[in-house]
Amino acid sequence: MTKTEYMESLSKRLKSLPKESYEEAMEYFEEYFAEAGEGNDQEAIENLGTVTEAANQIITDMAIENAAVPEKQKSVKKGISAVWIGILAIFAAPIALPVAFTIAILALCVVFVVGVLIFSLLISAVAVVFAGIVGVFGGIWLIFNDPACGLATLGSALLSVGIGILLCWGTVLVGRWTVRGTVKCFGRWAGRGKKHGKA
User: Fold this and answer.
1) Which of 47, 62, 91, 131 is deepest in the core (most CB within 10 A)?
2) What whole-number distance in Å separates Cα of residue 54 and Cα of residue 81?
3) How far, in Å, CA of 173 to CA of 189, rounded?
């Protein structure tokens, strides 16, 4: 197999990665061949192993690396990409395909359920904020007709807005923590699979 054929096969194997990660992986292999030097393509291919081995190796390494990245450095998009890479790492691990498939399905189910719960909490929090804002206008209007009732309504509405904002903030934090925890679990699992494969 020539370098061109090897890289084309790698490209097909890695297409399931997020775009940014795919480009990073392909750049890594291009640099690997460049460092090997002209005329040493076959030696480089032998060191990398088969296309499947090389692709699985870099996916596993990415999952482990993502697990080590501090949470503050992750955007929502990168967090989701990291979860996907973690799922791919499960299939890349040296275990039977049915086992990998089962683990991946369970992981996806957990992520989906938690995602739905977080989304529901966020919608509820936004609704509380919206209701509070409406209440503020209602309270201001009531002040001119019934000051006592208006002030009570205004106070309750402001409290509702405050609680809603806190709920929104808390929901976002829980979402980030969930993504981070999921990525860490995948990274640890991928790391164990990597060690097991070397054993």
Assistant:
1) 62
2) 20
3) 24
The pair of structure tokens assigned to 125 is: 């929090």
Q: Which of 128, 117, 129 is nearest to 174 (CA)?
A: 117
| Residue carrying structure tokens 């490209």 | 11
Q: What are 124's two structure tokens?
A: 């509820």
φ, ψ of residue 40 in degrees (nearest 5): -110, 20
Nearest-5° angle of CA 40, CA 19, CA 95?
A: 70
pTM of the model: 0.48
Instruction: Write the pLDDT tens digit of every residue in 86-144.
Output: 666 655 555 545 555 666 677 777 778 878 888 888 898 889 889 989 988 888 888 88
Using CA atoms, how far apart are residues 38 and 150, in angstroms rounded to an integer?
A: 82
Domain coordinates in residue numbering, the chain: 72-198
pLDDT beyond 80 at 148: yes
Q: How far apart are CA 65 and CA 183, in angstroms?
A: 10
pLDDT for 66 equals 65
DSSP state of 71: G
Q: Which residues contact 41 (CB under 8 A, 6 or more apart)?
A: 2, 3, 6, 33
Are the CB atoms for 121 and 167 separated by under 8 Å?
yes
Other C-beta atoms closer than 10 Å to the C-beta of 40 total: 14
Short-list 111, 112, 110, 92, CA closest to 101: 92
Range scoring the smallest mean pLDDT among 3-17, 66-80, 127-141, 177-191: 66-80
